[in-house]
Amino acid sequence: MPEGPAASAEERTVIEQRGLYFEEFDLTALYQHRPGRTVTEADNVLFTTMTMNTQALHLDAAWSATQPFGERLVNSMFTLSTMVGSSVAQLTQGTIVANLGFLAVTFPHPLHHGDTLYSETIVTDKRLSTSRPGQGIITLEHSGRNQHGVVVGTAVRTVLVWCQGAAQ
């Protein structure tokens, strides 16, 4: 432990929580987003009703009991939103210009009430924008797994981010 008086407020280095600038995205890294998110019945019902999704598979326990999974399932849009949302602090907080789109969204296994969703991201491509100086296009592949390691969702997302020193 260092000895001596603590630095005064004026002497302290300021570190701001932010995402990555274009140059910092690493094509060889696996970004694990922690902590995980345990999904409750209340989360599912609130998200489903808030987004006006009246699908009985998310809301009607009696009907869902007669379906192949035998219970209500977590809304897949909640799964997608949580996978992407969990990446924000680490990857795009304050450095994103725009979300450009999603490709290849899949839900190979359902997420159930009480499951914990763990998300991770790899960068599959990055290039400087030809039409927007000081900005670059990043392709991210998000995946989410439950507490047993089973993949419950994947998505390829393209984002426009600031280059270092160009952010407004």
TrEMBL record:
InterPro entries: HotDog_dom_sf, MaoC-like_dom, MCH/BMMD. Pfam families: MaoC_dehydratas. SUPFAM superfamilies: Thioesterase/thiol ester dehydrase-isomerase. Residues 31-141 form the MaoC-like domain. It comes from the Bacteria. Belongs to the enoyl-CoA hydratase/isomerase family. This is MaoC family dehydratase. It comes from Cryobacterium luteum.
